[in-house]
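Quick illustration for those who missed Monday's session on complexes.
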Amino acid sequence: MEPDQTETTSKTALVVGANGVIGRNLINHLLTLPDWNVIGVSRRGGEDTRGLKYVAVDLLNEKETYEKLGNLSEVTHIFFAAYQDRPTWAELVQPNLAMLVNVVNTIEPIASNLQHISLMQGYKVYGAHLGPFKTPARETDAYHMPPEFNVDQQQFLEQRQPGSTWTWSALRPSVVCGFALGNPMNLAMVIAIYASMSKELGLPLRFPGKPGAYNSLLEMTDAGLLARATVWAATDERCANQAFNITNGDLFRWNELWPKIAAFFELETAPPLPMSLEVIMSDKETLWNCMVKKYGLENNSYKDVSSWRFGDFVFSWDYDFFADGSKARRFGFHDFIDTERMFMDIFEDFRRRKVIP
Ligand SMILES: NC(=O)c1ccc[n+]([C@@H]2O[C@H](COP(=O)([O-])OP(=O)(O)OC[C@H]3O[C@@H](n4cnc5c(N)ncnc54)[C@H](OP(=O)(O)O)[C@@H]3O)[C@@H](O)[C@H]2O)c1
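Prediction with NAP bound:
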């Protein structure tokens, strides 16, 4: 007879945004740990397995959130990594704040052993999306002119926390790389699909970004490393009510990495050519469907492997894009990952999963 999970586990994670590039990898990590039960929350839901159950809910709907999550009194840790994409920075605020507020308003009154709320943020806190921001960005840097939803979310938790049973932490990764499908922000998928299509069309791999972006200095965050940091920050009491930049620990320039990515796909490179991926890749659905058939790939829709707008965004950064990662190290998190190795491992993983040829 299988042991009862409730006898061996002491913590229950509510992973909000369970199908995201961040949430999905966080769940995978939590399931490798001995003492966690996991509840995954998103609109699409998922398949329950040992130690993991999904709840499908639209968090923008306050009433539905209460109906679907209002009995989860066992939750000890909320990991908030849900995200609603919108065309402008200002439009991001309302839905992304509303989802967090609806979750906290529902769970806090019923979960008497709620210990921690973890908030996933990013370098938008530092204005990285607006233009050349101060680097290295530090957790102590002043906020910039709103609107900015990451800051509003953190301030909501800061105002709510005093006198409660829980503490909060905030994680600030760079671009997050890992496996996920149907996600607006998925750089590894952008590169993998773009390279696979270049190969199919007999083309070299051209960097599609701004000329300056090829030479600027940046960093990435591996989704697995981020998951380990997130759980660390949520469970180490030194991290209570603190924000942390979480990065791979090395810097790179596309001008060095791009030819190595090309080599992985057995492609030549050609000089960069600025183009909008969102525009230029918009007519490639038929090509994708042919590739799925020809190479016996998993039947993922073109939409589910397309994050072209995000690719345009990342490849437009003709300024340095990095933060100081030493605070997390000072507080006790020492993990690091080689970014070149990370990309190759992720592309190999996409191949194993038959996402790309
Ligand atoms: N991706 C990156 O490179 C990156 C980098 C730095 C910071 N961040 C930040 O990290 C956070 C998470 O980003 P992400 O890239 O992991 O997002 P993502 O891949 O788009 O995932 C978002 C998750 O939220 C769920 N969701 C969206 N709307 C929902 C709703 N109305 N109700 C319930 N669930 C909903 C989605 O699942 P369903 O579709 O099934 O609902 C999905 O599981 C964001 O704040 C983002 O700004 C991301």
